[in-house]
Design a protein that fits this description.
The protein contains 23 helices and 27 strands. It is globular, with a radius of gyration of 23 Å. A seven-stranded mixed β-sheet has the order 14-13-19-18-15-16-17, sandwiched between helices. Helices cover about 30% and strands about 20% of the residues. It binds alpha-methylisocitric acid and iron/sulfur cluster. Iron/sulfur cluster binds next to loops.
C-alpha cells in the first residue's frame, strides 16, 4: 500500500508505537525551537530535568513575542534566554531578528526533518516539507535533551488543490476556506497533507501561510510536498543543499480527503471572535474600520509586504484608520527596504513596527472601544488584541491593504488590475543576529534576574477527593481565555505566582480569589477546550491556584498534553453530564489512581445534585504514570 508524505516522515522517525490512527506513537525530533514567552519555562525545565546539553541536531531560542521592556521583568527574561542558549548549546536569535516561524523557515527548516516548537504555529515549516509540530515547553525541553515526542498517531487528510488562485485571492483565503468548512475543531488529531496540481502554483511563503494557520483547525500539523518550487526557494536562501524531494507514493492512501479548486475561491474574512467565523468579504464590506495591522507569522513575508507596498504606492491610508506593519524578519525588512517597498509603505502613512509578533499577541495596538480592526493575523479570540470590546477581523494582505485605503472593509477586487510582485532569486541571507553557542557551554553563567522564579512544585493527585466546580465554560475556550497574554501579562511568564492572578481574566475576574477561598477545585468546559496556543501557563497557573481536574466534552491537543505534563487530571464528560453541572457543585472523585491506570472511567458523584456519572481520562500507560507522579518533571526525577 502506497504511503503518503506524513506516514513516510513518521516512519523515518518512529521510536515507539504502531502507526494506527489514534494509537500513541513517539518520534525522534531533529530540530527544536522555543520563543521567549514559552522559552523561559522550557529552559528552566531543561535544567530541572538535569539535562546539560542540547542533543537534537539543532535548537534555536528565539526572542520575538515580548519586545517591550516596560520594567526589568522582560529584560531579565531576555538575558536568561541568551545565557541559557549559550550554556546548553542552542542558537540564540536576537530580538529584532524576526518572528520565530518566519526566521526558522528562512534559515533552518528543511524537507523531511521533524521540528518541535514551543509555539502552536510551528507548522509554518510545513511549507518546505518539515513535519513541524507545536507542543508545550516541557515536551520541547525533553526533545532538546534527545528524548522522543509522544503524540496520538494522526489521521492524514489529503487536501487536493486544483486550479490557480484568481486575481486578488491569496493563500490566506485557502486556509480560511478550510476553516469555514471544517471549523476550529475540525483538524484535531489530524495532519493536513497538501497535494494536487494546484501545489505547484504556490510559492513557499504562500504554502507556509496555509500550514501556519492550519493550527487554527486544531490540526497536529500541515505539510506540503517538497518539489522544484521548494528547491528554488531554498537555493534563494543559500541552503540548496538541504533540499530533498518529498512526494507521496503514486498509490498513497489517506484517511480523509478534501478538495479545493483554487480558481473558485474569493476573498474571505473571519468575523470577530473565532478564526472560523469566515464569510466572503463582500458580506461585511463597508464596515467602518479604525485600525489595520499587517504582519504576524501568517502574513509577513517579502511577497506579502511587497504586495502591500505595491497596492499602497502613490496612495495614503484613510485618515480615520491607524495602519501598522511588522515585517516577519530582519531579512524581509532589509529586502523591502533595499527594493524600495519600504518607501511606499512609509509614504502611504503606515506605522512601521519592529520585526516581531507585536499586535498579534497584544503587545501594543489595542483597538479603541468597540473599534473594528482588520488584521492579517491568525487568531481573533475576544480580548487577545488587548481590548475586550475590540472587533478583530482576520484577512489577507490584499483585503487589509484595500481596507486601509478606504477606512472600511473593502473587497480588494475594487482596486482594479491586480498587483504582481517578483520575488528576488537571491534573498539577503544574513545570520548576523543569530548567535551560535560555544562548543563548551559548561563555563557559561546563566543570568537569573529576580523575574526568573523557581518552577512550581506539584503534589500528586489524591486517590479520592472532593472539590467544587470553580467555573463552567462553554465550547471552544481558548488558552487566550484561560491565561491571557498581552503587554500587561507577558512580562510575568517566568513568574507563575504573579501570572496566576490573571487566570480567566477576561471571563471571570473573581476566578483566582474563588480558587483560593475554595481551596482549589475543578474546571468544567464544553468542546475543544484549550484551543489555540501552546502556552503551558494555561495549565501551570490553574495548577498553582489548586485546580486538580479539568472536565470537558473534548480537549484541544496541546492543552491536554500540557495538563498531563503538569499533573492535572484531564477528564471527558458526556454532553448530558456536562449540561447537568453547575459552578459551585461539590464533586467527589473516587478510586482515581486505579481507574486511570486501568483505563476505566473515573466515578464522579455530584454531592450537590445527588447524581453520579463517569468521566474517562483516556490516558495511555505512559501518560497515566506521568499524571500519577504529579507530572513529567516529577516523573523524570523519580525515574532518574
Ligand atoms: C500565540 O500565537 O498564541 C502565541 C503567543 O504565539 C502562543 C505561544 C505563547 O503563548 O507564548 C502559541 O501560539 O503557542
Ligand atoms: Fe507570534 Fe502571533 Fe505568530 Fe503567535 S501567532 S507566533 S503571537 S506572530
Amino acid at each position: 500500500m502506497g504511503r503518503n508524505i506524513v506516514r513516510k516522515m513518521i516512519a523515518a522517525h518512529l521510536v515507539s508505537g504502531e502507526m494506527t490512527a489514534g494509537g500513541e506513537v513517539s518520534v525522534r525530533i531533529d530540530q527544536a525551537l522555543t520563543q521567549d514567552a514559552t522559552g523561559t519555562m522550557a529552559y528552566l525545565q531543561f535544567e530541572a530535568m538535569g539535562l546539560d546539553r542540547v542533543r537534537c541536531e539543532l535548537a534555536v531560542s528565539y526572542v520575538d513575542h515580548n519586545m517591550l521592556q516596560t520594567g526589568f521583568e522582560n529584560a531579565d527574561d531576555h538575558q536568561f534566554l541568551q545565557s541559557t542558549a549559550a550554556r546548553f548549546g542552542a542558537c540564540f536569535s536576537r530580538p529584532g531578528n524576526g518572528i520565530c516561524h518566519q526566521v526558522h523557515l528562512e534559515r533552518f527548516a528543511a524537507p523531511g526533518k521533524t521540528l518541535l516548537g514551543s509555539d502552536s504555529h510551528t507548522p509554518t515549516a510545513g511549507g518546505v516539507g518539515s513535519l513541524a509540530i507545536g507542543a508545550g515547553g516541557l515536551d520541547v525541553a525533553v526533545a532538546m535533551g534527545g528524548g522522543p515526542f509522544y503524540m496520538a498517531m494522526p489521521k492524514v487528510v489529503r487536501v487536493e488543490l486544483t486550479g490557480r488562485l484568481g486575481p486578488w485571492v491569496s493563500a490566506k483565503d485557502v486556509i480560511m476556506e478550510l476553516l469555514r468548512r471544517l471549523t476550529v475543531k475540525g483538524g484535531v488529531d489530524r495532519v493536513f497533507e497538501y497535494g494536487g496540481p494546484g501545489v505547484a502554483t504556490l510559492s513557499v511563503p504562500e504554502r507556509s501561510t496555509i500550514t501556519n494557520m492550519g493550527a487554527e483547525l486544531g490540526a497536529t500539523t500541515s505539510v506540503f510536498p517538497s518539489d522544484g518550487v521548494t528547491r528554488a526557494w531554498l537555493v534563494s536562501q543559500k541552503r540548496g543543499e538541504v533540499w530533498a524531494e518529498l512526494m507521496p507514493d503514486d498509490d498513497a492512501t489517506y484517511d480523509e480527503r478534501v478538495e479545493i479548486d483554487l480558481s473558485t475561491l474569493q476573498p474571505l474574512i473571519a468575523r470577530p471572535g473565532s478564526p472560523d467565523n469566515v464569510v466572503p468579504v463582500r458580506e461585511v464590506e463597508g464596515t467602518r474600520t479604525v485600525q489595520v495591522n499587517i504582519g504576524s507569522c501568517t502574513n509577513s513575508s517579502y511577497r506579502d509586504l511587497a504586495s502591500l507596498a505595491t497596492i499602497l504606492r502613490g496612495r495614503t491610508v484613510h485618515p480615520n484608520c491607524s495602519v501598522t506593519v511588522s515585517p516577519g524578519s530582519k531579512q524581509v525588512m532589509t529586502m523591502i527596504a533595499r527594493d524600495g517597498f519600504m518607501t511606499d509603505i512609509v509614504a502611504a502613512g503606515v506605522r512601521v513596527l519592529e520585526s516581531g509578533c507585536g499586535p498579534c499577541i497584544g503587545m501594543g495596538q489595542a483597538p479603541p472601544t468597540d473599534g473594528v480592526s482588520v488584521r492579517t493575523f491568525n487568531r481573533n479570540f475576544q480580548g487577545r488584541c488587548g481590548s475586550e470590546t475590540g472587533q478583530v477581523y482576520l484577512a489577507s494582505v490584499e483585503v487589509a491593504a484595500a481596507t486601509a485605503i478606504y477606512g472600511e472593509i473593502t473587497d480588494p477586487r475594487k482596486l482594479g488590475e491586480p498587483v504582481t510582485v517578483d520575488i528576488p532569486a537571491e534573498a539577503l541571507a544574513d545570520d548576523g543576529m543569530i548567535i551560535e553557542p560555544p562548543a563548551d557551554g559548561s563555563l557559561v553563567e546563566v543570568i537569573r534576574g529576580p523575574n526568573i522564579k523557581p518552577l512550581p512544585v506539584k503534589q500528586p493527585i489524591p486517590d479520592t477527593f472532593s472539590m467544587r466546580v470553580l467555573l463552567k465554560t462553554g465550547d471552544n475556550i481558548s488558552t487566550d481565555h484561560i491565561m491571557p497574554a498581552g503587554a500587561k501579562v507577558l512580562p510575568l511568564r517566568s513568574n507563575i505566582p504573579a501570572i496566576s492572578e490573571y487566570v480567566f481574566y477576561g471571563v471571570d475576574q473573581e476566578f483566582p480569589n474563588r480558587a483560593r477561598e475554595w481551596g482549589g477545585g475543578v474546571i468544567v468546559g464544553g468542546q475543544n477546550y484549550g484551543q489555540g496556543s501552546s502556552r503551558e501557563h494555561a495549565a501551570l497557573a490553574p495548577m498553582h491556584l489548586g485546580v486538580v481536574a479539568v472536565m470537558v466534552e473534548s480537549f484541544a491537543r496541546i492543552h491536554r498534553a500540557n495538563l498531563i505534563n503538569f499533573g492535572i487530571l484531564p477528564l471527558t464528560v458526556a454532553e448530558g453530564d456536562y449540561a447537568a453541572l453547575d459552578q459551585g457543585d461539590e464533586l467527589e472523585f473516587t478510586d482515581v489512581h486505579a481507574s486511570v491506570r486501568e483505563q476505566r472511567p473515573v466515578k464522579v458523584r455530584n454531592k450537590t445534585k445527588g447524581t453520579e456519572f463517569e468521566a474517562p481520562a483516556g490516558l495511555s500507560e505512559r501518560q497515566a504514570t506521568i499524571l500519577l507522579a504529579g507530572g513529567l518533571l516529577n516523573y523524570t526525577r523519580d525515574s532518574a
